[in-house]
Protein 1
Amino acid sequence: MLGNPNRFSPGQGAFVETTGKRICPSCAGVLPLDAILCKHCGRDLTVPSPTKIVPDGANFAIAIDGEIKLHGLELAKAKRIAAILDEVQKIS
Ligand SMILES: [Zn+2]
């Protein structure tokens, strides 16, 4: 698990890798790299989500389909937006 800890690979499915951890795309809970279920919100992390929370300098950004859409968000705000986008994608 060495290497660049801040790597962001759009093809990685539902996860964001940051400092050796993953961030849940639904609740932004920090999870181990090998987590398959979010221990915070119960999301199945094996199902890829187009919405991701990614590190953006000191803040966070929202990426959809690997493309950064919203920059400079506080984590709490990024979590709320990601959760809303996730719900919308489930419905549509
Ligand atoms: Zn979660």
Note: The CA atoms of residues 37 and 43 lie 6 Å apart.
Protein 2
Amino acid sequence: MSEEKEKIVEAPGCLTAEPDLEGYELVYEKPHTFTDVPMHYCPGCGHSTAHKILGEVIQELGIQNNIIGVAPVGCSVFAYDYLDIDWQEAAHGRATAVATGIKRIRPENYVFTYQGDGDLAAIGTAETIHCINRGENVTIIFINNGVYGMTSGQMAPTSLAGMKTTTSPYGRDIKTMGSPIKVSELIANLPGAFYVTRQAVHTANYVRKAKKAIMNGLRYQKLGLGTSFIEIVSNCPSNWKMTPLQTIDFINNEMLHYYPLGDVKLPSKEALDALAEIEKGEKK
Ligand SMILES: Cc1ncc(C[n+]2csc(CCOP(=O)(O)OP(=O)(O)O)c2C)c(N)n1
Ligand code: SF4
Ligand SMILES: [Mg+2]
């Protein structure tokens, strides 16, 4: 091992230590909004990337002390351990109802939920639809990995046709199990949906776009014109029984055919002009 490499490896020791970066150009660092708690996610899991961009957005918007997250039940149940912001844990599926209450009593705070597909689109379908139908001024981050990750891979509403899960061992049969739900397209029809977009985090380019979408979804709370919904097509190497690299191919070749990426519903030009005025005022 070269002397330079040794320097990097030795310096951290644990996640809290500051590495000696003298003589190096800093090209990447952990968001300052992160805690030092090591993440429990499986290697290659999209949740950790989604957390990272969320942490970066909160840092860049300078709202760490002014944002409240609502954590789900699912693999991301410990999101509150990883991002150093105010959090409230919600029962499985109830995050949007909890977020509604928080935002209504603390309208000055940014409020978001972070939920999986089992949480948001199965047990929490009613809460999700009614929250968005009411046009609650919150941001919903929806991680679609096509499976119940935490409970060992049962079929989710978003599991693809033919997808083998522990509760569809022969593959999802559309005839008896219904079609995978395109949640973004479904909820975009609700008048309260202000901004709806589908993104992904399995390649660097998509990560950048997803980050921008989260940033916009939070910024739009300044307008109070409805709910922002950011779906992130993600992976679950453990329950898909694939290596992280294989999941990238699966997302590209299978998931994105059924769940095309891009904006599903955009704010009007008038709304964006109004936001530009607000943000100009904030800079003064
Ligand atoms: C009321 C209730 N019902 C069921 C469960 C069991 N449960 C825990 S996590 C989970 C599914 C999680 O899947 P998802 O929301 O897709 O999140 P992922 O783990 O895939 O990120 C279920 C059914 C629970 N904890 N509480
Ligand atoms: S089980 Fe799946 S969703 Fe959960 S942490 Fe592991 S890879 Fe991620
Ligand atoms: Mg899931």
Note: DSSP finds twelve helices and nine strands in the chain.
